[in-house]
Amino acid sequence: MRQQLLRRASGELREVGLECERGEFAQATFSERGKQVVILREIAQAKTDLQPSAEMVEITACRLLLVNRLGPLTKGQVMTPDVFDGIVDLVKKQKRRVARDRLKDHEAWRGEGQEK
Hints:
single chain, about 120 residues, mainly alpha, about 80% helix
């Protein structure tokens, strides 16, 4: 099992463009290896993905709250405090992903406009 973990972690390091000798990686403690892999994944994601600003993430959160709250309100539906708390929790979990998706869509749209 340890060998499988070492192979998998070494493979993940190679995915982000860093070579790692299996011997060096094996000498690090398990938690050190885990931290290294997490940090390297974040570095690779930052290089390849667009990252929305904190302002965009919060604006997206406000938009999600409004859409999820105003829809039922305009239909005359009553919303209990528990349902509203659930919506707030869902928005907290999804706001970063939704902001990133919107930014990608915007960049794709801008790219199409520049090609024409």
